């Protein structure tokens, strides 16, 4: 089963502590070595992006930044045997922040990616 | 807001960490059976304590540390601690560290590799290697293994018990194979992983065409192995082969579960991420010509063709020729005949099948049927498809062969 984990947080005023970055790299290496992490990357603040909308038949483009309190700051794509395993990887990621960046708060959204096991095969 | 359920965390973290924990314990007690028992005891302790005391701050580390303490306690009780300490000191590159548990931490990767080499040891039957690998490295329960292989649970239980006893009786050392044996032992490891993958990819019995869970488990084991033995081209070749084959999973069956042949698959349903990963793994093995690398190179030819007619059949035929030299087998010859039939015409393909003798192998008459049909020899083609239908044990496959025969009337 594949899960997309999106990390959301209020953009912090200071860059993350080097020890945290080091720990995140190690966790990524561990998850890769465990055969679970397929892909991951950090995301620039929404100021660098844009949103293309369709409403009432009209396309519109809005440049970032967007007004949301929390920004998506990274994503990771995992292949695991259960939702609980995806939740455990997300928890490990947040535990690193808890241990190494006091005061940091955020959410890791664990989203299931549909795969062949979720659909009937094509007609 | 739902509170984290401690029991669920115990089960999940155990499943994710069990191989590393068993591997670490096996290094301490030098017996995989005993290591697994000690690890299971640790799970029981966690199931008692976590719901009462709360989930520890670092659940995986807690399990590992508790398990190691139990193993060291056991050795101390048996008065064998100093002896084992000396033994481990001799077999590691570093001098003996007075703190055994701390020293262990640096060797998790090597321990896992040792565990893989042990569960795939040639002293065990193939069935036992598969069962023990799924049990100790995949963390699958006996029941799950039995369900995947359509055999009674007690049978799997006996295989695993017997395998552990065989390892103990033969005093199979829990260590990396000596250089002279390394290649042969690695071949056994790769074979076991690919057997597991294939059992999931194309079930040999029953009506279940695929058992995706086994495929995913084999793929995961392959990725783990690639991390542990990054300089072995064939490991990357096997991973590439499995990623590329798994990329076709969604396109391989129709709504009623019948298989869809490669040239008929909707290629938009192929998993591009797995294809990318497969090609990347193959690139790591480039320039080598082991059997898995060659098979992965063939799979890559298919993966790179956006339409069936873009397939580089000449390259595939050439790769099969090399494969037939490196790892000769009738199956390889048959596949080579298919490729030659596409690259240079059905008559040349058919000529290659004429000398093949593969009793009870349904794909030989099926391939001959296809080549004969393309040559316009309908009556002979029909007879071949009927022969294929009579041989196969897979109900879906039989239906396809029967319908091919019927089309030719």
UniProtKB/TrEMBL annotation, chain A:
Pfam families tied to this protein: YCII
Entry-linked Gene3D superfamilies: Dimeric alpha+beta barrel (3.30.70.1060)
Coiled coil segments of this chain: none
Domain YCII-related: 1-92
Domain of life: Bacteria
PANTHER family: BLL0086 PROTEIN (PTHR35174:SF1), BLL7171 PROTEIN-RELATED (PTHR35174)
Family to which this protein belongs: Belongs to the YciI family.
Protein name per the record: YCII-related domain-containing protein
TrEMBL record, chain B:
UniProt entry keywords in alphabetical sequence: Sigma factor, Transcription, Transcription regulation
Residue ranges occupied by any RNA polymerase sigma-70 region domain in the UniProt entry: 20-80
Domain RNA polymerase sigma factor 70 region 4 type: 116-167
Annotated DUF6596 domain residues: 185-285
UniProt xrefs under SUPFAM superfamilies: Sigma2 domain of RNA polymerase sigma factors (SSF88946), Sigma3 and sigma4 domains of RNA polymerase sigma factors (SSF88659)
Highest taxon of the lineage: Bacteria
Pfam families on file: DUF6596, Sigma70_r2, Sigma70_r4_2
InterPro entries registered for this protein in UniProt: DUF6596, RNA_pol_sigma-70_dom, RNA_pol_sigma70_r2, RNA_pol_sigma70_r4_t2, RNA_pol_sigma_r2, RNA_pol_sigma_r3/r4-like, WH-like_DNA-bd_sf
PANTHER family membership: BLL0085 PROTEIN, BLL6612 PROTEIN-RELATED
Protein name as it appears in the record: RNA polymerase subunit sigma-24
């Amino acid at each position: 089963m594949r899960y997309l984990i999106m990390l959301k947080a209020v953009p912090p005023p200071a860059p993350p502590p080097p020890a945290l970055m080091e720990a995140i790299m190690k966790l990524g290496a561990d998850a890769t070595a465990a055969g679970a992490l397929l892909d991951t990357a950090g995301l620039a603040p929404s100021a660098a992006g844009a949103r293309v909308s369709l409403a009432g038949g009209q396309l519109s483009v809005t440049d970032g930044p967007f007004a949301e309190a929390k920004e998506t700051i990274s994503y990771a794509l995992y292949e695991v045997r259960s939702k609980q395993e995806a939740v455990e990887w997300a928890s490990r990621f947040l535990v690193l922040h808890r241990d190494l960046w006091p005061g940091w708060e955020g959410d890791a959204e664990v989203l299931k990616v549909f795969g062949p096991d979720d659909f009937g095969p094509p007609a | 807001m739902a509170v984290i359920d401690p029991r669920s965390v115990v089960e999940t973290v155990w499943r994710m960490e069990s191989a590393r924990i068993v591997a670490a314990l096996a290094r301490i007690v030098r017996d995989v059976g005993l290591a697994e028992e000690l690890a299971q005891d640790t799970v029981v302790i966690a199931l008692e304590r976590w719901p009462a005391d709360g989930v520890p701050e670092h659940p995986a580390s807690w399990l590992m540390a508790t398990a190691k303490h139990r193993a060291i306690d056991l050795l101390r009780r048996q008065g064998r601690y100093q002896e084992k300490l000396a033994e481990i000191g001799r077999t590691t590159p570093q001098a003996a560290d007075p703190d055994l548990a701390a020293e262990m931490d640096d060797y998790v990767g090597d321990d896992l590799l040792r565990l893989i080499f042990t569960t795939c040891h040639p002293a065990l039957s193939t069935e036992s290697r598969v069962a023990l690998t799924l049990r100790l490295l995949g963390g699958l329960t006996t029941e799950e293994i039995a369900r995947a292989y359509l055999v009674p649970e007690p049978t799997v239980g006996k295989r695993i018990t017997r395998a552990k006893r065989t390892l103990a009786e033969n005093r199979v050392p829990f260590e990396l194979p000596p250089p002279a044996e390394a290649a042969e032992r690695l071949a056994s490891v790769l074979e076991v992983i690919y057997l597991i993958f294939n059992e999931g990819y194309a079930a040999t019995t029953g009506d279940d065409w695929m058992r995706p869970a086994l495929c995913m488990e084999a793929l995961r084991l392959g990725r783990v192995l690639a991390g542990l033995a990054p300089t072995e081209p064939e490991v990357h070749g096997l991973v590439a082969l499995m990623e590329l084959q798994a990329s076709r999973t969604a396109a391989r069956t129709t709504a009623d579960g019948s298989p869809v042949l490669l040239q008929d698959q909707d290629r938009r349903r192929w998993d591009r991420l797995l294809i990318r990963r497969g090609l990347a793994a193959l690139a790591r093995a480039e320039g080598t010509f082991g059997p898995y690398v060659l098979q992965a190179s063939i799979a890559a030819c298919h993966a790179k063709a956006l339409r069936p007619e873009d397939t580089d059949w000449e390259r595939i035929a050439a790769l099969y020729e090399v494969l037939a030299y490196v790892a000769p087998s009738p199956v390889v010859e048959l596949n080579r005949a298919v490729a030659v039939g596409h690259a240079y015409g059905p008559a040349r393909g058919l000529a290659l099948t004429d000398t093949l003798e593969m009793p009870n192998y349904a794909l030989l008459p099926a391939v001959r049927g296809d080549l004969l049909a393309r040559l316009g020899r309908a009556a002979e083609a029909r007879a071949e498809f009927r022969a294929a239908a009579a041989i196969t044990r897979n109900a879906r496959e039989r239906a396809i062969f029967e319908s091919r025969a019927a089309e030719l009337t």
